[in-house]
Amino acid sequence: MAPGGRPAAIVGRLARWDVPFGADMSDAIVDALLERPEIAAIRADRFPAGVPLRGILRNDARIVTLSPGEIAVREGDYGNSAFLILDGDLRVVLPPGLPRETLGRQTPRNAGWLATLARALRPSPKFPETRDVGAAAGAAATAADRDPRALTFLQDIPAILDRHRSVRLGAGEIFGEIAALGRVPRSATVFAETPSRLLEIRWQGLRELRRHDPGWRRMIDERYRRNALLNHLQAHAFFASLDDATLASVAAAVRFRTYGDADWHLQHRRGRDAPPAGADHAADPIDDEAVIAGEGGPADSVYLIRSGFARVSCIVGGGRRTVTYLGVGAQFGLAEAHTAWRAGGEVRLSQTLSAIGQVDVLRVPFRVLAEHVFPGLREVPPPYATQRRYEDDAFVDWLIDERWINGTQTMLIDLDRCVRCDDCVTACAATHDGNPRFVRHGPVSDHWMVANACMHCQDPVCMIGCPTGAIHRHELGGVVVINDDTCIGCGTCAASCPYDNIRMVEIADRSGTPVVDEAGKAVRKATKCDLCVGQPGGPACVRACPQDALRRTGGQALLLHGVEGVRR
Fold first, then answer.
1. Residue among 148, 180, 214 at smallest CA distance from 84
2. pLDDT in tens, 54-105
3. What is the pLDDT of residue 155?
4. What does the angle CA 63 – CA 66 – CA 67 come to, to the nearest 5 degrees?
5. Which CATH architecture has domain 9-234?
6. Which sequence spans correspond to the domains of the chain?
7. What is the CATH number of domain 246-276+286-389?
8. For residue 74, which of 99, 52, 110 has the smallest C-alpha distance?
């Protein structure tokens, strides 16, 4: 019986490995993998009984076969896995990469107007959060995200190798770990030059290998550091003219630094749920931020923002004034360091760079810039202007302090335009079988409200602890979605979300009968906004608003344009 004495549909509660990553991983395949030198070197006795090495290979990995010209990973796509090459040769295409048309770049496939019309005409379920609880559709669900890759072939490999720089990868080498560990887009295209066989490891398995085997942790971290560093340096204009040998010299001198707190999201959530007794709510958040480079310090480095957000501020009177905010790809200190090089003397920083949450930074020393960069540098951007360029400083500061800036699709509602008709919620419900995936409610600053809807964050911390990979980025577009078939209802994602935008719901079968496990406990699933992925026209909430009051916008637009970034 379900709670309340109602009849119940009893199902077995899913565990992490009930839906393996690859359906064809037999004992014979696992035995063969365990004999390969890359895996045989792993100390199986270091792994806990609940997560054995054999179980990781059987359930968190799968075999992928590629024909010549077939793309393994495509630059710009999001990925949740890394690859170990078992046999064959692959090529990594170096920047500037392959043309868009060559990559077969496409937008996510929508359901189509006929399917959408059929959905609209279909009667809504009589009961909330119903599921086909007996269906076994989950086994193939994880493979669906890689369909776009399987449809993309490079037709003329010799011509591509002649026209584009590339590096060969052979058996025993690993690639794809940057996207898998960093939850970021693929940084390069990798395709098969010869018939190849790969072991694809989803990031949950990769995480366990790093956690329990020092050798793999060292190997993956070194590759992650080296590859991420080179890719990031090449993205900056002042390194663009350097040849490979010079860039390698620069990379050898660059240092990774992390500032701030990795658990900022947990502290942020605790602070919002229950502010400490006697807390001074008027305190300036700048006071608690980790300083990366301080005003008055020597201009002896350039800092490149690799992930997260940073604040540029300066001393005004007895306090600090925010000048601007920096996101991924921005630099700090270049103008001052260049001035010091031209003057041949010491120059002091006129501003402070501090971390908002956690920030990963690349620190490029002055001596490297003086030797390799400054002699050929023709244009140097000035220091950030001390006059704020935002139309509404208070609004942007609020977005930063509350960490709304982390979102790429934050739902902002202009309360001066909104007439409270609720058409946005109705449209969302109609698109999701009668179940709205957001709440038209949230904090307000001036006339802007941030609604309780998944923001599809630049750094989606909700993904970190998911044991099955059910919550993940869709390969095309990076929308954060939940695979209902592999969600085990643990609630880790909901507990991690700093914005309370993920909800755990009790489910029912199609007849409305509550679903419980063998112990009689209600089975729950995680739900949230999926940005209407696959629906023509994009998010239904935006399309349904009759007053054009609702916007889905990202942190980078706000950093660049302030409130104007919301209105565009």
1. 180
2. 999 999 999 999 999 999 998 888 778 999 999 999 999 987 888 876 776 5
3. 76
4. 155
5. Sandwich (2.60)
6. 9-234, 246-276+286-389, 395-567
7. 2.60.120.10
8. 99
